[in-house]
User: What shape does this take?
Amino acid sequence: MILKNKTKIAVVINNRANYARIKSFLKEAQKNSKVELKIILAGSSHLEKFGNISNILKRDGIKIDFKLHTVVEGNDPLCMAKTTSNTLSEVSTALSSIDPDVVIVIADRYENLAVAIAASYMNYTLAHIQGGEVTGSIDESVRHAITKLSHIHFVCTKRAKKFLIKMGEQKKNIYLTGCPSLDFIKNLNKRIDKKFPKRNPYAGDKISFKDEYIVFLFHSVTTQFKENRKFIKNLIKSIKFFNKNYQVVILWPNIDAGTDFISKEIRILMNSKRINSIATYKNFSPEDYVRLIYNSKCLVGNSSSGIRESSYMGLPVVNIGKRQQHRERGKNVIDVDNSSTKIISAIKFQLNKGKYKKEYIYGKGGAGKKILSLLLKSKIEIQKKLNYLN
Assistant: This one.
């Protein structure tokens, strides 16, 4: 899409996971002389409470052009709706200042729906990464809404491409590229070095990464908002059970409604005098996060990284509840209901099983480079139409 001497591409990053999904693309765009890259941080991406990624981008040599304060903090769905509203207003202003040729929106966050709406109404070409997938929570609806607003799609799986065609998207505008979050994993030195603790501040006990540990990461399930307190209590029971023999690493949940229930129970656990060898972390660089989970005995919770990156690495995973419902997954994943008994049983199995054979459900790497190349070549009409009107 060479409209000028340079194609101006705006990328809005709303949380830490967004950055992991788009980093390889950003690095490719940054070194391309035909691209002018503009980065907007919004949502929880630069809030200390949820793991400020500003320093990580700076360390990676990626310039931030705008920092938008859009989050309405709270523990109920109303705050998600108001955050979406704030994001729509603030992102619209930033995009107007940038006047991009292309806006890139990532995955399925509710804040990203605001980005898609703003770009669409302002007649900017909208490119969507990770459309066509199926999950639980409000993310399911948001992802498909973004699809209908987007002009060009970069999907991760064959099934996702088929689903977009069934949704009425033009086949010529759908590209199977794989997931950009896998790009750096293949050649990454996955060893945890001595500087790892210094790069990644933690609370609680110092973890010896030479010894065995389990990683727990559980996010709020927004469509089961009132049940989140029960969900995290079951998970805490499981953590206490395995803490007798294993070190435990707990990652802080994201900003979704219901997070306060989860955070409170984690704080209670950390203040308990009956536990030890437990540490909590807010944030990692994409590379250090991969190192963390790769060297663990098992990843437990409901993060999409337990489905995407973990299948590529053959990491044993216990996926809890409906947040990743129906997402394509590898043999490395055991799905369980939110029952402490079932969670404990599944973790025991995975601890005995060890590493699985890696699977390439979400690609083999190189997606960021493919996406940039396709984006620069594509010719897109702003006026969309359903594919069965051709």
Observations:
- The chain has a mean pLDDT of 93.
- The radius of gyration is 20 Å.
- Residues 196-353 form a domain with the Rossmann fold fold (CATH 3.40.50.2000).
- The longest strand covers residues 7-13.
